[in-house]
Amino acid sequence: MNKAITRKHGKWLARFTIATCLIFACIALTRKVQAAFLNYQVNTMTAEMKDLQMKPMCVGRFLIDVPADAEVSYRGAMISGWSIATYEETDEQFATRVEKKEAKLSGETNERGGPSLESMHQIDKNGVRGKIHVFAREWIRGLPTEPLSESVRVEAMIRVQEHSFNLTREFGNDGYLNKLAALVTQFRSREENEIPTEAGFCFDGGFITEPLKVEQSERTTMFVGLKGHPDASIALSMIAGITTPRTLLQRDANAPTINANRSRFHTFRRGARAFNGEPGEEILDRVHEFNGNYCHSFRWELIHNKTDNVFTPLMSFELSTGNSQPGTTVDSSLTDAQALALWDKMLSSLRVRPVVVAEPVAVAPTQAAIGTRANSGMACPASGWWHCLNVLAQDNTPWFQRGQILPKASVQKQQSLLDRLKGTPDLISKPTVWEFVRIDDGAKDSPGQALGRGSTDKPA
């Protein structure tokens, strides 16, 4: 009896084992078929996207291609600790903003009751104009045995071609004034789709020319919105001079929220993806939200980036779908294949922006025109004969070498009887103006000889 029951149970166990294996095999086969079909869809979508019109965008020191009809915006630009805000406005609107800020600061006091606005400094160089304001000094207490430390805000409002820029930071010191004054003269305006050819850093509506150091921690973020897909969000961020102790994969593996809901994540790809010979990592997930919606979360980062090179910043690229109001999600408007194909198309286009190095051009010194005037004490603008405009000058048309310091005029002084008895010189020097009258053409006679106004021969 027991043997019969054992045999019966054994048959059921064998059938159950076989059925279980078949189920797992079917699941595995289904997943392989789904993966193969998805791969087919991605390849098809990638081929279709070859005809998608793209446009290059400048972000920091890099270029990336985005759909031609995409909406692009920038945020978070910083340089040397100053946050950069961009304004599209007229000259009159800029002037009004400056006046309002100065009026506001003029009416404020610092924590000791003194004027908040300590000084204003005019900027007018390299096409950059505006003002730097030094204000809001604070005295900060440290340890009881330490003296008070001071902090003061040093900020700029500048106008460059069609854009205005505010550079702000909360804490600074008096030494920041010269640093900021030099930095703002490296700014220039940039159109949205303009790709500069010189070395420097792109941000919202602007461009900072060299020299820039990695210690200045240049930073910016570009956001891309897709036409017809309001739930999709794309961002490219970078900041030079810093790195993270853990890589993208390491952080993801130890994320409590992700680990607690791992079954809701379907991973398309997870692993290495290099950029420009530097190591990088990507994680591409489809997420099943608690409300039943399906979204995408694609992430890539440059890892182990060098902190001494502006071309290896801490850089990340992200694409997410299903975005809606804060705290809610919607179904992704992009299919898996569309999201993957767009991701690969954009990320594969990320590259260092090429720079055209201008060849130095030898420029011949310009020849001063006849009639040019220069004051005594200045460097002579051109070799030739110069006429002294003081009619009492003794040597009124001498020859001077280019770069030679123009002398004062020697004028005869009317002497008294006492001057004569003392033997006082009858010539005195007086500041004068010299006029260029003849180019050094190798002629033997000076203009003074030709005109009968005296003579001073050209030195041998």
- State the helical fraction: 10-25%
Envelope shape: elongated
The quaternary state of the protein chains shown equals single chain
> What about the largest sheet?
12 strands, antiparallel
SSE class: alpha+beta
Radius of gyration: 37 Å
Beta strand % = 25-35%
Overall average pLDDT: 85
How many runs of DSSP E, i.e. beta strands?
24
Distance between the termini: 138 Å
Strand order, biggest sheet? Answer: 5-6-7-8-4-3-12-13-17-16-15-14
Instruction: Count the DSSP helices.
Output: 8
Unreliable segments (pLDDT under 50, ≥5 consecutive)?
A: 446-460
Would you spell out the secondary-structure blueprint of this structure?
Elements: H1 2-49, E1 54-59, E2 62-67, E3 71-79, E4 82-88, H2 91-106, E5 117-125, E6 128-140, E7 149-160, E8 163-168, H3 176-184, E9 187-189, E10 200-203, E11 206-209, E12 219-226, E13 229-239, H4 248-253, H5 256-260, E14 265-272, E15 280-288, E16 294-302, E17 314-320, H6 336-349, E18 351-352, E19 373-375, E20 384-388, E21 399-400, E22 409-412, H7 417-422, E23 427-430, E24 433-439, H8 447-451
Antiparallel strand pairs: 1-2, 2-18, 3-4, 3-12, 4-8, 5-6, 6-7, 7-8, 9-11, 10-11, 12-13, 13-17, 14-15, 15-16, 16-17, 19-24, 20-21, 20-24, 22-23
Helix pairs in contact: 1-6
